[in-house]
Design goal:
13 strands; about 30% helix; 8-stranded mixed β-sheet
């Protein structure tokens, strides 16, 4: 009897501790939205030498080398992104929360001071938030990432952020959305994996051999304490982004595996962009989120399997259904519009986001 009682006490204590971890992380930082992004000054590598290679900024050397595309701006060119979010707010009514999450690029944090090739991204994000309707929720990722610039939040040899950067963004979103969240350092919740010697797109973009010779460590985390099932719809095309139809459904896994040295490491998440993805989890809280994203957004949903009952992922270049119908059919409660700063100011992307609301209407 005494042994049984001891075991019960241990189990209760373990469950209570785990619940405390989840509850405390759900309120990461503050649940108040921030619509004023503070100015950012590069203090981590302000005077690092910079050279332009095929319109790519290359800084540092050896293991510290970093290649990134400059962001040209100007801030006023992004206002239409806020207008798209406002349009979504009108289209979906009060039953669906609209979240606007512009995603900074590496240039926002690692560009040397007074680099004439790139503009400040924080001022552009401010312009977006200032023009967003009051009932569009603004997710300030820039301020959160600025607190972690000395960590591996952006890849050095690829144009994407690192999975750790996406984790911090997902953590902030979970706090604002007031849903549970698990820390990646909780080893009962996540398994850490590493793809060694990953050289991404910036070598081919820049042609700088030193970028190739100093690859990244691609570190990501698998959720291991929640049951989930992922479904994928693949597309047929005519041209790079012209979707002409859907292929027969083929089941697959959300997280794909790639060997060390593979240039495909960032495709770990869903196998890439060209899918319509839906994930059903064992998290039963009635919250169903849909991400309208580019490739930066691929790394976000995997940190939210403990947070939402369902997660749906639509790429801003590949979608051949009507988004209003899709949201109604799947009882979506939250829509996250999340694009990197290069896409935020791209007319073709903005037009696609608008067209999704009206195309193929039933």
């Amino acid at each position: 009897m005494k042994q049984t009682l001891t075991i019960i006490i241990i189990i209760i204590a373990t469950l209570t501790a785990k619940a405390d971890i989840i509850d405390s992380l759900a309120t990461y930082n503050d649940t108040t939205e921030n619509r004023i992004v503070p100015a950012y000054v590069n203090t981590i590598c302000p005077n690092v030498p910079l050279k332009m290679w095929r319109h790519v900024c290359v800084t540092g050397k050896g293991a510290e080398i970093r290649a990134f595309s400059p962001w040209k701006g100007p801030a006023t060119s992004v206002v239409e992104y806020a207008n798209v979010a406002n349009l979504y707010r009108e289209a979906f009514g009060d039953n669906v929360q609209i979240w606007l999450m512009p995603l900074p690029t590496a240039a926002a944090f690692y560009s040397p001071v007074n680099n004439p090739n790139t503009k400040e991204e924080y001022s552009a994000i401010n312009a977006i938030f200032q023009h967003a309707a009051p009932d569009v929720h603004c997710v300030d990722v820039h301020t959160i990432l600025a607190q972690h610039v000395d960590e591996y939040i952006y890849l050095r040899t690829d144009h994407h952020w690192a999975p750790l950067g996406a984790y911090y963004a997902a953590k902030r979103f979970a706090a604002l959305a007031k849903v549970p969240f698990r820390d990646i350092n909780d080893t009962t919740s996540y398994e850490k994996r590493v793809i060694h010697k990953f050289c991404g797109t910036m070598y081919s973009f820049s042609g700088n051999i030193n970028v190739k010779n100093n690859p990244d460590e691609f570190t990501y985390w698998l959720p291991i304490d929640v049951d989930y099932h992922a479904d994928f719809v693949d597309y047929t095309y005519k041209g790079p982004h012209n979707v002409t139809g859907e292929k027969p459904y083929k089941p697959n896994t959300y997280f794909r595996e790639y060997p060390d040295g593979s240039p495909m490491a960032y495709c770990t998440f869903m196998g890439g962009d060209a899918h319509l993805t839906s994930v059903k989890t064992a998290t039963k809280n009635g919250r169903r989120v849909l991400f309208v994203k580019d490739s930066f957004g691929n790394a976000l949903p995997g940190y939210l399997f403990y947070s939402f009952e369902e997660l749906h992922v639509v790429d801003c270049r590949y979608f051949n259904r009507n988004l209003v119908d899709y949201v109604a059919e799947h009882n979506i409660t939250d829509i996250v519009i999340c694009n990197n700063m290069h896409f935020v100011s791209a007319p073709k992307i903005l037009n696609a986001l608008r067209v999704y609301l009206t195309q193929y209407k039933k």
